[in-house]
């Protein structure tokens, strides 16, 4: 028990589900850079998830995991979903496979969507948080928040701790409430069938207990990642806005015995009159069945969750999947939920207390959006928060959390509203059957939905960090195939030093850095090399965003990292032709890349894919979360200044201009195979030894 | 100290380097299947390797690691080598890059060669051995063998323990001999510059010590993996045959400071008059330099290893690499060696005691063959040994170890003989310079050598397990692009159950099973389905190799696993069209694959790549080590019988004929999208519920 009566912290994260763990994982990077930051994460429950709950991981989530060093481990355990089979009644009402479509749209991402039990994902996050924070951030379990107040007078004071949270340390018993009397592991106690009041009651203070176990935490920032019944949200008085359907669905996990031909494939099954099933094939031979139940809910009325059993869910599935056989001899987990779509009317209180994940949007689980969107909420929030509490960025940056994530949550709710009604509707018998759902309309929605659900389609509106208008209106023509405000799709480039093809996405590690991607164009052309040289001169000067925003004592790539991608072969130009040390720092072989044909795997055509001119190149600024901040020309350094000046804070002492002399030796030029002899030489060449 | 005065074990492995660990890893699979097997592995040294030693991993080694579940972890840490740059003197004698070639030949394997420090590789092996053997096999360190005798009268008795090995348990101090006074970590004490006598002396019994710490081990089999000075080899009186050059090379590991343009790329550098250097870029920014030293050895005379220092190696490299700069401020490890090529005149004693790895072949390290070949020796030996000690195969199988690996070792020695002389020779000044080495000849040898060095070119001679002649003469025309006796190259196939592309190599897990790959051809054609049905009938009958060689109580795929790969799309035939349960066992979705276009990644054309007719198919038998045993037609079940009868032993009680009735339901046929309605129905269809 960390039972100090009163303590301070920079960020208090409430809730250690996917949203909370992603928040903690991001904060670990900032703690690594500034070990005096104090980050805490608490959860009222005594244990993490062991079975059931969410499982789908979408493309964008996997791309993000890769930048956090988590993708390989998670993919090694996950089950990849590649095909969706659609089953519908034929003219005699007999179930029939009518179509197959790809699950992940081809070429949308280098990753395909997969499923893995939430508990395993949380395990990998916990390991990664411990490692990256050097054990400084650990989830404190059995800690229940009871009171939250914000001192309005201190909100704009960056040194203050305006938030006071009183928490109670629970006993093991209190932190492990009974799961409503079911023997099989289930999620009913967390589902939409449980009320906030029931959840509160499960953790309520027992008479004569808990008086001595309270603690007062004063925090600069609080993030409420505390689920659909979010105590933080209710305490802040934020409302959930939206509506409910009358559909009730059940979920069951297990290894089915079935002769259904696509039992290991994702399926959407609409029976003639018995409802719908979605099949999700999972890791270790397990299958998840989402099953529409015959029970209906009356809008506004509560449904008695105790009525729902795994047997009931399986029985419904059997009926829907006739004439195929189905049995689930051992149920790993089950739940039931009432479909509704709601979104919070605010995502923060004065940019001091934030809510994220299920706390601000709830919807049906079938598109696998819950866990993904929750993690992406805090992935969006926490690099901003990290820069602010590290003193690198202004508090105004924080308002882009709500301005970016709330419209997305609304779009998600709208998508789910449409999608879940199509899924729960009875198939139309024919064209005239207007009460039924047209299976062509459903298929179309499924395909379109897949793009949305992949998470790759997000396009953030213009803001201080999305350069689409005003002083930072990106030059769209310089990179025709990408959109400012979307995530930068990854293509392979070839590391100049040895010719290894590397995904650009692998270079965009989540560590809080902005990146300037210098698409240098044809560096073998002397005129183009002059432009590159001028850009390097800017970077080296005391006026550059690097010189002005990097604190003294750090490395020049600590805040803004420059990566150069040229369009020559590795023989047309040499690494040493590039201006050193700004583009080619001393003995650093990881900054210069070529868009050329490697020996293995084929040309990835990055310039072409991004729509960048191979001669003239372009500059792309990428945010710490991988979203495209702005696109400009090599000469547009004032735009770079304007962009960073919009929210960055200059440190008291900056690193200043580049003072290290050019270290490369130019005298050996004639030794290259096809060396152009073109380079920007800023210092006399060192003598050749 | 496991100091039983006398004990028995099935296999005693002497030496825990790469060859010994691979042996133990294989044996772990057999211990997993038969927990009463007793396997021990001892090493006289107190610790595993922490720096230096071998580092290159060739394609075939990585393919093998994948079948052992080791590839992912090792590749995540390794550095991939993609380019070889050749540097030679120009007409003025100045070093110049003259060529670049791919390091791994394109399309030779799905893996490319990589480098990773031997200590990390050993670490992953140790973890994997512990996990797979359920902690039953652990390396016993500080255990020195002192006496080995074989009781000739018991050699052919499969119940006997004909070998007696006396070992001494060393103190920590005795097991950690001083490394000849060098401060920097080095490999001189293990290099070819150290004599067997010096090595023996380092571990010699001290007066008044060790009398009580001896143990007598009686073993069925012994594998000597105890290095170039192999005590096992010397004890057996086996001779090393070959010759030595007068060249001496040094090796140094560190992070170099250099302006050499290809310092992060593999390079072969021939200077005009100062000798040669090979650069190997390694993990974590480290680089290994192989450096030809000016010192020469007189054949037959010993070289004083104490003379060699890292400074001397670096100084030689600097001179060779002029005019580029080079410094290695911190040396991680260094060594020196005297180039020679020798191979043992026998690889075993009566197929009871075997030697493997450096114990039976020594050569120069530059082609990265040592560690790879050593591991491949025991990878070849130990599935055979595992089947024999498990009672599944006849002892005659063991003679194929020497008959397969000794000719390969001889070829390796011949390759290295040529390659190392080309590397150490002075570049020819012009056509007339007959004493010099032509750089075109060198380049050509490098490219050809790469194929050999990849390990994928091995083609074992005909034998009881390589069906190339007599009763098991493979029908080569049925799979035109593959060679019996070579490893089966991996191509992707699509898992029928859900459409996921999977490398065939991933299915060939190293667990001691033989595989029958049934390339079923166009299963949508009724005539072809008849042939498939007849083959399935054979498998189910009491005459099949499965029925006769699988012990009662086991699963039908325990000894011989059948995998079906058809050439239809996943819509032209259904999984349930295939004969169940022989080809499609109950609820097992991992046995049937399609050579078709998946949604992502493109058609892999497995039939085309193997040269198999897409209509008629073929049967390929693959050995437990991934080598192609035989190729035949679907009707050639007598050939299957003849092959397995050649070395397998029938268990006392066999699993016998397939008795489980066909479990699939055929009545729903009309529900498929494009179902052919063709299938072999052996039992009346169960009623559709």
Q: Explain this structure to me?
A:
- 2 copies of one chain form a homodimer.
- Chain A is of the alpha+beta class and 689 residues long.
- In chain A, 25% of the residues lie in helices and 23% in strands.
- Chain A has 15 helices and 28 strands.
- In chain A, strands 1, 2, 8, 9, 10, 11, 19 and 20 form an 8-stranded mixed sheet that branches. In chain A, strands 6-5-14-15-16-12-18-21 form an 8-stranded mixed sheet, sandwiched between helices.
- In chain A, strand 27 (618-622) and strand 28 (628-632) form a beta hairpin.
- In chain A, helix 9 runs antiparallel to helix 10.
- Chain A is globular and about 75 Å long.
- Residues 667-689 of chain A have low confidence and may be disordered.
- Chains A and B meet through strand 6 and strand 13 of A and strand 6 and strand 13 of B.
Assembly type? homodimer
Return Rg of chain A in Å: 27 Å
Q: Low-confidence spans of chain A: pLDDT under 50, at least 5 residues? A: 667-689
Largest interchain contact:
A-B, 60 and 60 residues
**In whole angstroms, how far apart are the ends of chain A?**
64 Å
Largest sheet, strands/sense/barrel of chain A: 8 strands, mixed
The number of E-state strands of chain A comes to: 28
Q: How big a fraction of the residues of chain A is strand?
A: 15-25%
Q: Count of DSSP helices of chain A?
A: 15
Q: Considering DSSP H and I runs of 4 or more, what fraction of the residues of chain A is helical?
A: 10-25%
Q: Per the principal axes of the C-alpha atoms, what is the gross shape of chain A?
A: globular
Q: Average pLDDT value of chain A?
A: 89
Secondary structure category of chain A: alpha+beta
